[in-house]
């Protein structure tokens, strides 16, 4: 009995010292007073702990710990707080302060699973939620240019195109942009129109950029890289937010007064019983677009010394309708009078975005999500012409089932081009509505161009009374009589009629195309112990419809099916210091052979804060639907996509001559006939100059690349990111012209057929511009260095340098995509989110890049120089925590340097703004 009492006493004593302690509380941010979901609460020196819920609340039950003890509270982006616990039931309120910078971020795009950014096997850049809030540019998307290795080209206030590692274009179909996993490209254009149809600054949680080929995990569009934008989870980010931003652009311009630029955004999110949550977003940006008013004479047929405003054959870069030309006997080359872009383009641009999402937690680790996005707006786009994407609409529906180790996602993307149009065509069509004959009567549009030149010739040669002979200006003024003046009712009527006339008879651009996509992945790492294994796949169906204006789809619907699957395996070796990974993806488009894209990588961690990486990657790009199926007869030539079934039965790829050989043959026959040789003899003597075209059907572009890099943190103060890469490219997609006679191009002897030669000489042939590939190989290499240093008292200094070099080698310059990338670009940033605890903050970003030549279809693939330029973005802000308000005063391009980022695109000036952001989280 005594032993029993002693044991009972001992047990009670142990229970006394080991009784349970319950701690509850809430964790909030010192900067915004908002709750912090996912914050970690741990018993110091122990693994015991919990995380805060979506409302920032927690409950922690602790046993076997003697009072008093200490808990630590931490969250990504915030400093660590320690709190002493002195009672059994303690309720506490913890306020965490922002760290000045996130040296160790978590990213998911590099391997499709969450990992420390220092351990990424490939280069990756991240713009965090904190960086978005502190961004000095007008929008977060504008601020992406400050990320290392990223290039930006602005066609419009509402349209900025981004790219990495060369071969830049104004419409980049080699770069994938995802918003919550949804491909943000328009089905008809086949590239994302910047953030025109993306997310508002209020709803963006982060943006991750992978420079270089990412096809091994993301498929064909990620040929040059990937931008993955993630919006805020409705469970984690609850409450009401709105922002009002107002500014000015066109400051200090001789051709325009300052114009207002306004951006309004709203967000509300709420959860119910931690099971159902929803969010609603709306934003509207409106202003006056940048002016494209470079009137340089770019007529390549005229010697440079003779070009300029007094050149009768003037073809000004941003004047349209003056491309129509004629060589008049006894006069010379003359071009029609065109219209300036400002009279044709809709410069009153806007971007309206509406977004809603519903999230349902089926269980603790299983969630269903439905999301709808609607975007409509106006933007200017520089392609083969300057296009006005006017009231263009894009809608997406996304349905996703997500677990702790898998997701299945399906979505649709639908567009409507509405009132979009081609300004170059518009200028030409307006010019055909008012031309008078020599008696003053307006002629039909079909005869307008010829009659204009007839009037010009008559006036120049002195056959028109009261018009001085041999005077180009006087002759032009006579030919232009009756010309519709911009701003008049007649001009506006002609403009509107052409905009809503689609196909070759008008300037309108019509597309109601769409695509459907499904993808998913499963992480088998918990089931397979010896290796981390990830598998996934996707399928996509394009459904194109232009009603015959671009494709032969008025009665023959065009659809394209493609699918892909991947597997990724990784393993840590040598006490987890070395991580090796291999991935393999296979993609198949119904019109092409399948493509395998492997990737191999290794990361060696000397310590957790010092990591060396190496990778070998491959990439490919499928031809776009336009590359495959365009079928557009533009009069003297038919533009024909390169998919085999697009020209089925036409026998063009199999039976045609090269355009160069036809020109050589025509010149030789013409010369022979000119010296008295009978035409049949001249044709027979020169027919062997004709060369059968050997044009292959189109296929995907290919890339191979390797990369070396280091990423690490020194003394907890300095973040270093260094990388070098080299890439090789083949099978660039290009156009080539062929000439097709009706007769076989070769005879039974394998030589050019005399019957076909007669047809060529008589010009009884058809000309085609075919899409195909070049076998030439080119390479590019470069390096980048990024440094970020934490100074005392919360100041942060950072910068990066990127070098890009292109090696043409022995390739034909006409057979490859143009590099369109500066050799050097740099960024420098300096800021402090909270100066001395005063709730004042600031940020300064400086950008500079070297001069380079830009090649694009807008100027007939002839080079135009982009001079070296610099930009400075600055903001200062004041936070009012009690009112949940931040006031920001800022400038994009502070010094108002007017720069064009691609030849023919508008000159971008400064934007000066003030904004107010209200962010009140639900408790």
From TrEMBL:
It is a multi-pass membrane protein. InterPro entries: Beta-barrel_TonB (IPR000531), Beta-barrel_TonB_sf (IPR036942), CarboxyPept-like_regulatory (IPR008969), Plug_dom (IPR012910), Plug_dom_sf (IPR037066), TonB-dep_rcpt-like (IPR039426). The keyword Magnesium does not apply. Pfam families: CarbopepD_reg_2, Plug, TonB_dep_Rec_b-barrel. Residues 118-225 form the TonB-dependent receptor plug domain. Belongs to the TonB-dependent receptor family. It is found in: Cell outer membrane. Residues 1-18 form the signal peptide. The keyword Cytoplasm does not apply. It comes from Aquirufa beregesia. Residues 372-894 form the TonB-dependent receptor-like beta-barrel domain. Keywords: Cell outer membrane, Membrane, Receptor, Signal, TonB box, Transmembrane, Transmembrane beta strand, Transport. This is TonB-dependent receptor.
